[in-house]
Amino acid sequence: MASLTIRKLDEAIKAELRQRAARNGRSMEDEARTILRDAAQPRHEFAASFDGSAEQPAAPLGEPAAVDGQPRITLIVGGGIAAYKSMDLIRRLMERGFSVRCVLTAAAQKFVTPLTASALSHQRCYTDLFDPMSEFDAGHIRLGRDCELVVVAPATADLMAKMANGHADDLASAILLAANRPILLAPAMNPLMWNNAATRRNVAQLVRDGVHMVGPNAGEMAEKGEAGTGRMAEPIEIAAAAQAFLRPQQAQPLAGCKLLITAGPTHEPIDPVRYIANRSSGKQGFAIAAAAAAAGAEVTLISGPVELHDPAGVHVIRVESAREMLDAVNAALPADVAVFAAAVADWRVESEGGQKIKKGAGAPPPLLLTENPDILASIAKREQNRPPLVIGFAAETEHLLDNAKSKLARKGCDWIVANDVSPATGVMGGDRNTIHLLTRAADEISVESWPVMSKDQVATALIARISKAVRTTES
Ligand SMILES: Cc1cc2nc3c(=O)[nH]c(=O)nc-3n(C[C@H](O)[C@H](O)[C@H](O)COP(=O)(O)O)c2cc1C
User: Fold this and answer.
1) Cys-Cys link to 408, which of 14, 241, 398, 416 (CB 3.0-4.6 A)?
2) Domain boundaries of the chain, sorted by first residue
3) What is the pLDDT of residues 382-416, one digit of tens each?
4) Region Phosphopantothenoylcysteine decarboxylase: which residues (predicted)?
């Protein structure tokens, strides 16, 4: 039988083979053998013979991380009630140009079938660690390597416990232990399971191990009458987080720039159980932070209390009151750009009660207010360490442009993003925004009115403007 002589291959093929072999942790000879073995396998046309069961012929696994220019994702579906949403996630990932290979745990198959996953992904679905058709070439290792990213959705409490402790007693956990690609988890479970000390320990361990998380979100659970943190992030959020991972190939106009962003409301305590707040959801500030990270910036996001998960690649600092936010902002300086999107309370209660104020027989207690520190003005007027570009937000319910112009002058910032937050607009807490961007050059103020956009689109457009301004300053 003829032996393989790599030396005789032409240089381009050798280079390709070298890369592939390195990626798969094999010698070049072994990689060439794998390719030949795959090529010699009878090809089973998926559509013709497919029944979605484990008896389906194995799709060749010895393939690179991208097929036909489509980056590959291995999607592991755990046994949670949110597994049905992962069937939609397959479509959302494919819409974004990913090729998706699914792995279902035994418990996941109680909720969704391999047939559904195969039909939606147009590929074989993997379920069995001891499947001879895929294990002829250690398929459990390849599924965590011949891809750009491994996504686990839903990531059950059980799967995370196994990962944190290095178990590998089924196909999903063996892939996760053998993976050499980034891993993105979308946890989903009952709030009591999520808050259980064991899960907290496992999550902390996984984060230390370099595993990435999207969600869980807060809200109603499948269990009747239960609510809290534990809902799986929506498929569209998981797909966006997956895409953000693979974005480094895209232009990164803010690479090397440090952005400081504030978001959300502040809570100003009245006594240990009561506080003054506002209706800010933090969505716009979080979207700006995500867009800045996607543009390559190093982002610190200082947020008041909101029900939003940390955007991928962003350093998030959570605070409660305006004074805590100011301290966190000062500690995060220096920065190249500061965007103050938080709805900071103008006032706080002058003397916070040390104990819960009791309802008495007399008149209600008066709430004496005192002014909070002005975070935007204090940073914009700094003599030292002032970020070169300081951007404030003006949320107004009347005389929007007049108020925004006077805010720009009064606060000493460079730009104001003005938005109408009167209840009829639905901006506060909603997903859309109408922006007027006020910029200042010398004493001249220019106003740009943008069309109604989603908060994500506003964020992308604002980051594009910031990138342009940063580049102009640099050149
Ligand atoms: C109806 C039902 C719903 C469940 N939902 C969840 C869930 O959302 N999250 C979770 O961690 N476990 C959930 N479980 C428990 C898991 O199915 C169980 O821990 C299983 O062993 C997980 O296996 P896997 O991690 O291998 O997929 C649920 C169980 C049942 C019966």
Assistant:
1) 416
2) 50-245, 252-348+368-474
3) 999 999 999 999 988 778 889 999 999 899 999 99
4) 1-258
